[in-house]
User: Fold these one by one.
Assistant:
Number 1:
Amino acid sequence: MENKIFSFSLEKNPIISIKVTPGHFTTGHFHTNYYLDVSGLKYDALVARDVARELALPYLSSTLVDTIVCVENTSVIGAYMAEELFQDGAAVINSGSAIRVLKPKLSSERKFIFLDNETEWIKNKNVLLLTTTISSGQTLNNALDCLAYYKGNVVGISALFLYSGAVPEQKINTLFTSDDIPGYTVTEPDGCSLCISGQKLDALISSEGYKRI
């Protein structure tokens, strides 16, 4: 599987790059023909800082942000985004403000929740939601349901990668889309053309990585 890996970069900042592996993969609720490794964008501090600068741009002069909620291990990027958003500058609307960076927990039902001492930074606050990849939209909807429950005011959604076929109702600010990977598909297991053709699954994938099957 590894010998098929290739990568693609953000044109205006090539240091921001995603590794891509073709194959047959499952998340447990959908199948896809590519595994996207975004770990370098999340965990390499220098790269994460550049990612944060790009993701913060749409909000700098127009969007008040009280809290950044980070799902799928995006807290490093989220911290750098906060730094970008409260930097000094006449055109920076959050200049000098306090911005909280939170990571929700998972309940036993695999739903996002916040601890009681964290809810004060969500309720009636302007919340920016940060995630890695939006493919089926399941994680995004889970996060939005959570923020609605805690009465957070979602003022923006940012992602590293967006599958165009997800068709979210909300505007997504993203670095990459599936248009950057010709032939990228996400399907229900029952309608997976790779399954129908008899191609075995290569790995179970998640926001953490992959495990061979």
Number 2:
Amino acid sequence: MSDGRDAAGRKLPGARVAVNASIVGENPTGLGVYSVKLVEALDERLDDLVVYTSSRDAFAPLRARIGRAPVLARPDHGMRGHLVRALWVQSVLRLKCRIAGVSVLVNTVPEGLIRSSLPQVTVVHDLLPLLFPEEYPRQRYYFGVLVPRVLRASAMVVADSESSRREVHARYGVPLEKIRTVHPAYDARTYRRHAADDAPRGDGPPVVLFVGNLLPHKNVLGLLEAVALLRRRHPCRLVIRGHGRPAYVRAVRARTEALGLADAVTFLDYLTGPELRRLYVRADCFVLPSLGEGFGIPVLEAMACGTPVVTSDVPALREVAGEAAVFVDPRDAGGLAEAMYQVLTSRALREDLRERGLRRVQAFSWHRTGAELGEVIAAVARG
């Protein structure tokens, strides 16, 4: 068995690291994309890595060994997949790790072993099911019962943001010294600005873009209200790229009709990375008016493509965007409309935000994420 290495390249004698990436589905989005990119970053650093997944094709070529996870455990199967995954982790994955001689298990989501002597590093992205329980009627029980037990059984917990770190401490009583903040990143190979993107655009009203799940806390209804106000002063189109629960999608479409925006709003579903990049580049303004977030990768993707960003003045998004965005109260439709108006009508503001954003995203990379998580894994492996 080869030796693993920590982030600085130091050997960790006898350290075989396993990653529980069973959350990766057929077309990874959100948590699946995070898991894929994290595995690829760790694969660069760890010589003895085992990845448990049912979606081998979702990853770039890896040095790591691939361990099989059940296809039925994918998130594509909804609640059934969640139950299969939970049972598989507690039984089959536990046994596989023991047979493989795993020294540290990394859980890319808070789905890990309970009452295990195997040291674990567990990633918590956010506590949205507890902050917005009406949106997550099933997950709130999972976050209320299973997640705290997994965290107690983990040697270290990793949070996406300092905001999430403090929420985990406040909600679950996990000591702050046991929680590390390791920022995720964005796919810099896909989301970047090309020289050809600066070519003059065709005629038509400016485009406001939203990318994210269609859930109430994303505040899409508030965004529609703001766009209706904005169009009284300045023409624009709104593009919404996302999908969500059918009831909320129907509510969004109904509000679009009620506000007289049917001809001004375009709805798009799943897009490949290159297709989404083109969408960012063609947008005049990217808006994420969420009531709460654990991080906010679409903000980084937009800034990397040179698109000015307007987003909510909530802790996690402040942490992501720094001084490179216009921040608004997400519950104030008038204030949101004014912020979009200023961005769409001021070339100087757009250029300033573009330059700030391109500088800001340089602080985020999967190489850095892998290095920082590698330090956590090394500390756990050394006991």
Number 3:
Amino acid sequence: MTITTPPQRLLCGPGPSNVSPGALAAMQQPMLGHLDPDMHDILLEVVDLLRDAYRARGAGLVLPLQATGTSGMETGLAHLLEPGDVAIVASCGFFGRRIAEIARRYGADVVEVEAPFGEVVSNERLLDALDRYPHARLMAVVHAETSTGVRHPLAELGAALRDREGETLLFADCVTSLGGVELDFDGFGIDYAYSCTQKCLGAPPGMSPLAVSERAMERVRARKIPVPYSLDLQLLEGFWVKRPVVYHHTAPILHIYALREVLREIALEGLENRWERHSNAGAYLQIELLERGLELLADPDYQLAPLTAVRIPDGVDGKRVQTRLLREHGIEIGGGLGPGAPPIWRLGLMGTNATIATADQLLGALDEVLADEPVLASAA
């Protein structure tokens, strides 16, 4: 069967989220070339708005990479690690493990500090690892682990590293936190952060906003081994920030329009208000799920608001529930991700979907589907 018009979906999984209507409209604006001087003014506006979204006014470099979140992850590791460098990585889910894997591919000596899915790798354990490897070049954590719904206490980790006054850089995956969870690049003492456009920002997938501290940029400029050309931060800086522009790549113009629009929307809403909206919607959903007798995966002390992992009840066919939600209600949710993941559903309320009304729509559909599950029906 050929699908000419995609069906409408309410995207309540781990991402992408539904695109902001303003971003969709922005992508209908007239196309400019990537070397058009008016486009270069737009690039600078995007960088300025992105600094505000990250709270990265003191950062050495802020820009959106012309690729996905995983490329943002790889860009940082490629620039900040060289063969033989020690990298300490907190691994309590799929994306922490991915950081460790990519770091190994660049020849790093990875010290992986692990915790079970649903738990956080404590800052104490990470700092203990740093005591054992005081010359570690990098400490990497996932601020918002999309595979488990766990939020890392990033501010506290940054403060502890600053107190030590060492050379270890703080590397943070902010894919599911930028625009939806309190995040202060400067205040938290982060050295490299990356995100994506399709989650709490509410733009289409395809770009990875980055923020890099000045001390991290000093390491970038001092490295001797070349990095991949398409990911080269110094070359990208020449296109996005420095003037006159130096050509590097054909930029995804319409995606840039969309990103500019959602960053403007964040500025109008207010960053704190947006964090609060995500927090309220996530907390409401989580309370309602618990009242229905469902169990959440994440440690309650570190529960993420935009992403909730729900344990699939014994005897329930989790995939069948997902399929029915999609086919009968037009709602997408996610399942477990990667080897070793427990049987879970992953429910996302991000970007324009971070509302009580969306939570109620999701809960109503879930109630209807679960009422037909034999195990739960007999229990009722």
